Amino acid sequence: MTRKGRRMTLIVGALAVLGIAAGLVLVAMKDNIVFFYGPSEVAEKGVAPGSRLRIGGLVKDGSVLRGNDQSMSFVITDTKKEVRVSYTGQAPELFREGQGVVAEGVMAGPMELRADYVLAKHDEKYMPRDVADALKKQGVWNEGQPGASAPAKP
Question: What's the pTM?
């Protein structure tokens, strides 16, 4: 085999290995590419306990329960489905009922998340499109109020 042939074989082999590695990475990440799920998506997918994910939506009114220490529990809703969240730590400054929130953690059971991180959103600008659409259908989303801009495109 000539020098040019060996070089071409090496290049083709390296590209094949890179292609296989990229394919394996994409297959492994196919369900986790989305930034976060809404409660309805969690219910549809039937996420198994022990799975790590982010869930976004609104904190349901009347659902926040605070413990003696820094523990708390609340419900994230998209007005169709609900996910109960338990969290130990200091709540974000903007965290309150009716406010947008993203919780990251491990599923402890069906529709139950044990959160490691809770992020409060200052307005609905970053609301998932399906959550914003559900709020509009129910008349909760007010286009004219501050912070009620259109949801960001994914």
Answer: 0.62
